[in-house]
Structures are given as C-alpha cells and as structure tokens.
Design goal:
By secondary structure, the protein is mostly beta strands. It contains three helices and 21 strands. Strands 2, 4, 5, 6, 8, 9 and 10 form a seven-stranded mixed beta sheet that branches. A hairpin with a 3-residue loop joins strand 18 and strand 19. The chain is elongated. The N and C termini lie close together (6 Å).
C-alpha cells in the first residue's frame, strides 16, 4: 500500500498565464508494509477545465472545445480503466486539457520511504475564468494518475481557481510612467524583469487607484430625485464600493432607497435554448436606508472575494451593475414645525398613508480580479488531496 498526496505549493487561486506548481508525494508506510519494496508502474499529471451547462437553457456549440492536446494523445485515451483520462468521472465537457507530463516510470519505494515529484504547468492565457453561474459553470482541477501493474488507474484531483485579467499579455500600464528604478545609482546592471504576478498587481493597482468621480442626476416625472456620485469606475475583488447620494436639490421627497450589487449572466445568441430568453441576475451585497428629511447619505457595498469578475466566452457573458430602487412620495409631505425657543421640543407625526412611486435605475460598473494571494487566504477549497494506491 502506498499513500499518494498532491499539494498546491502557492494555494488554490491563480491568474491565467501563471505557472502552477504541485508537489506529489508517494509514501510507503512501515506499519502496513509487508517488508518488501512497493512498486508503481507510472504516474502522470494534467490540468483540465470542465464546462457544465444547464440543458434547459444552453445549447453547446458544435465544437465547444477550445484547447486540447495533440491528436496523437487524444487517440491514445479511451474509456478503459487502464488509460489516463484526466476528466474521467467529471460531469460536463472538457474544454481545456494540457499535455500530460510523466512524473516517473517503474518507481520502487521501501517501507518508511517517501519520494516527492514536482509538477509544473502554465495555465493558458486564453483560458476562461472559474465561474459558478446559474446556467454555466467552469471548474479547474489538477489531476494526477497513478497505476500499479495490472491494476486500474487511481486519480488524485486537486481543484483550483483561475482568474482572468484581460490585457495582461500586453505592455503594462506603468511602462513609461515610473522610471525611478533606471536612475537609481544603487542598482547595477539591467532593470530586473517583473514576474507575471507582479505585472498583474501593478496593472490592478494602477486602474483601481485612479480617482475619477462621476455624478449622475436621478430623475422621474416629478423632477430630480437625487444626485449620485461614484468616486471611481473600477474596483477589485474584496474592495468596498463607496458612493454618496445628495437629496438637497430634490424635487420629489425620497422616503427610502436601496442599492444592490448584481451580476448579469447573458448566454450568447447561438447557444440559447430559446431565442427570447433573457439573462439571469444574481444579487450579492445590499445597502438600504430610510432617507426622509435627509440632505445627504452614503452607501458602502463590499465586493465578495469569491465572485467572478466580468468576462466573456463563446457561451456566456458576465457583467456587473449597481441596482438602485428609490421610493418617492407622489405628493408633498407636511413639514413639521421647529420651535423658535430651543428649550422647547416638538414631535413630528408622519402621515398614516402615502401614495408612493418606485424609481429603478441601473449603473454598470467594472469589477476586476485581485491579487491571487489575497483570494487564496479566503478560499474554502483545500489545496491538497490524498489517495491510497
């Protein structure tokens, strides 16, 4: 008996284009051993992405596979239990499958001995992000196949998350803006090249740190309801969306308002089961406040770390928006008198019945990935798995 374990070195979250490293350890326990060395025929590892769709809403295109290995390897794989198929037992369609890498052949382990092999693979930059939607799901796994001679293959599967930052392969936004390193007299030689993760963090910081306040006048048939100000247009996962609402110039009295962070899932036209079907909405953070007699208010919506930033594939398109609902009075509300003598107090009794109207307004926003190290610290999935071979 041999214990085979797989462990992701840097956690469970990566950017498309990054290198993923997985340590695979094979251990022969002393207590359960017969005293003779245990033998394994071979072990191989692959990355793969599964796509699951709701058959009642989505029709897969004729060729949904976006990236597979060579035809020679595809012909080798079969449905038998003695060939390595990384996606065996998985639901859905495999849309990404990297070339398999052989870890070893004819491995012998003595009782009490352990041997570790390192599997390294680059996540394709054109890979879709991990996503769990209502109609479409993309999920990633590292799969290690291990086999004894004359025995079925045992699979070790370790799930991980992929985030996509568009434009990462192009020149960084900071090129030409910060030249301090080149003039530093304490640096010798050429300027060191940043890793892909460093460039990604640089891009994310540059985009999401830019303050560009935008104001919006929200009106209905009675006139101005409120003025909303959003301090920046782009946000990272884990950030707070902060905005202010000004009622000082309102023509229609606003009784209460609510703001909800929503994502819109739209299936591409060629993949829709019914051409007239609309997109689906998922709500996350929510802010609600009673604002009668308020001149100013503010909202704060946290962006969860587990959600998926906006993306588009051949099957689905995901967008983000702020959904506002304002409840306004159709008729003026009686003012309450303020005593001239500050030592006196007054109690204002609101009307028992009001004719109200609801104003709905949607504001598109941009949500980007975050540093994968931050997302890993809040991940619920394990970065390791173990099986007995």
């Amino acid at each position: 008996m041999i214990d085979a374990s797989a462990y992701l070195i840097r956690g469970t979250t990566f950017l498309a284009g990054e290198v993923i490293q997985c340590a695979i350890t094979f251990t022969c326990p002393e207590a359960t051993s017969t005293g003779q060395p245990e033998a394994l025929a071979w072990a191989s590892a692959q990355l793969h992405c599964q796509c699951n769709v709701s058959e009642s809403r989505v029709v897969l295109p004729p060729q949904p596979l976006t990236r597979r290995p060579s035809e020679e390897w595809t012909q080798i794989q079969s449905s038998s239990n003695t060939s390595f198929a990384a996606s065996r037992g998985e639901r859905g369609v495999c849309i990404l499958l990297t070339q398999p890498k052989i870890l070893f052949c004819d491995l012998r382990i003595k009782p009490g001995e352990s041997k570790t092999f390192m599997y390294t693979e680059t996540i394709p930059r054109d890979a879709p992000p991990s996503y769990r939607g209502q109609a479409v799901k993309y999920s990633y796994k590292v799969t290690i196949g291990v086999q004894r001679i004359g025995s079925p293959i045992k699979l070790i599967k370790v799930p991980f998350r992929v985030m996509v930052l568009y434009g990462l392969g192009e020149a960084t936004l900071m090129d030409g803006e910060d030249q301090t390193d080149s003039s530093n007299p304490f640096l010798e030689g050429d300027k060191p090249q940043n890793s892909l993760l460093d460039r990604a963090v640089q891009i994310l910081t540059t985009i999401t740190s830019r303050k560009n306040p935008n104001s919006y006048n929200i009106t209905n048939s009675q006139g101005v309801v409120a003025k909303f100000c959003l301090f920046k247009p782009a946000f990272k996962l884990g950030e707070d969306i902060v905005g202010t609402i000004d009622f000082s110039d309102a023509s229609a009295p606003c009784l209460q308002y609510s703001v909800v962070l929503q994502c819109e899932e739209h299936i591409s036209e060629e993949c829709r089961r019914r051409q007239q079907q609309s997109g689906t909405l998922s709500s996350h953070s929510r802010h609600q406040e009673f604002c009668l007699h308020l001149r100013h208010s503010h909202m704060l919506l946290p962006i969860p770390l587990h959600v998926t930033p906006a993306f588009i594939t051949d099957i689905v398109c995901l967008r983000w928006r702020l959904h506002f609902e304002f409840t306004t009075a159709k008729e003026p509300i009686p003012e309450h008198g303020i005593p001239t003598d500050q030592s006196e107090c007054a109690l204002w009794q609101g009307p028992e019945n009001l004719n109200v109207d609801t104003l709905v307004w949607n504001l598109p926003i941009k949500i980007l990935p975050t540093n994968p190290l931050h997302a890993t610290s809040f991940a619920s999935s394990k970065s390791s798995n173990i099986v007995v071979v």
